Amino acid sequence: MRRSSTDESTYRRSPSLESKDYSLPQSAFRRYSSSYGNHLEGQSSFFGFHTNPGPKATKTKYTSPKGNKYVVFYLDLSFIFLLELKRCSMARNCLQCIKYLMFVFNLLFWLGGCGILGVGIWLAVTQGNFATLSASFPSLSAANVLISAGTVVMVIGFLGCIGAIKENKCLLLSFFILLLIVLLLETISMSLFFAYKEEIDRYAQADLKEGLWLYDTEGNIGLTNAWSIIQTDFRCCGVSNYTDWFEVYNTTQVPDSCCLEYSQRCGLHSPGTWWKAPCYERVKVWLQENLLAVWIFGLCIVLIQVLGLVFAMTMYCQVLKTDTFYA
To answer: How confident is the model over 13-59, as pLDDT tens digits?
Structure first.
């Protein structure tokens, strides 16, 4: 039997998924985009879908809690503090390394000064004014030079040792200034020597000839011993030649140290029994033959001084930074 139209009106078919009226608009559900965080304005997310918010939701905006800002700020400060602490720890370790290196360096420096001072005192006590050849500078003896050099080296090394172990800025700066002055004086002396080499050569020969007049006189035992040793060891006689002694003795006579075979009063014999080579030229030749050793020795001294300056200034800067940080 057929149903009447009135029956069909009372019973309605349930809507199917294919029904056009029941289908939602495509803007209601959208897939969550792969670019996370790129939200559309006025939409909220629910399990990977974007839905249109209601009228009340559109009026309110999301605000993060204020406590999160303080947490992030605290974490940033903690991270910066840890980095600064690590850097200070590394700087402190570097300072300790430089400290002990400088202490050992200056300890050796101080011991070297003690050795030089000891040799100078021994020469002054046992040999008198040894190697005093200049009449213009009678105090310029080997003993006095060694004593002066040893004293300066000891003082500088002492300042370096105490300044390094105590990390004292004043002592470190004093060590640096004194060592720099010594290095500058050495540089200036070498520059003047090479610039006025010929003038210094002539002045040295004239001064040595004047010193011959003090030979074997009272109160000049140091000069007498120095000339005797030089003429015997270098097998020479006089400054420029053996005739330099003729003016001193006012006769054809030379000291006994000029003889080929030493004996008492041998200087009164004929010139055939004397050394003919000039002492000044012999000493110059000896220095030229050992010039490489002299240069190596001089460069070692300069290198030691430069290392001392570098250690002192580096440690001074590190101590200054440490004091500034902890102040």
So the answer is: 444 444 444 444 444 444 444 444 444 444 444 444 444 554 444 44
User: What is the chain's percent helix, strand, coil content, to nearest 5?
Assistant: 65, 5, 30
Q: What are phi and psi of 5, to 5 degrees?
A: -65, -30
What is the three-class DSSP state of 46? strand
What angle in degrees, to the nearest 10, is found between the helix axes of 279-289 and 291-326? 60
Choose among 282, 247, 248, 252: nearest CA to 267. Answer: 252
Burial 35-53 (b: 16+ CB within 10 A, else e): eeeeeeeeeeeeeeebeee
Which residues, at least 6 apart from 228, have a Cβ–Cβ distance to it below 8 Å? 255, 257
**pTM as predicted:** 0.63
Quick: pLDDT tens for 72-104: 545 555 556 555 555 556 656 666 777 888 888
Q: By C-alpha distance, which of 49, 53, 52 is closest to 30?
A: 49
Please report, to the nearest 10 degrees, the dihedral formed by the alpha carbons of residues 145, 151, 157, 160 taken in order: -120
Backbone torsions φ then ψ of 314, nearest 5 degrees: -65, -45
Q: How far is the C-alpha of 180 from the C-alpha of 186, rounded, in Å? A: 10
Contact 124, 144 (CB under 8 A): yes
259 strand-pairing partners? 274
Tokens of 193: 């020597």
Which residue reads 């060694």 in tokens?
A: 146
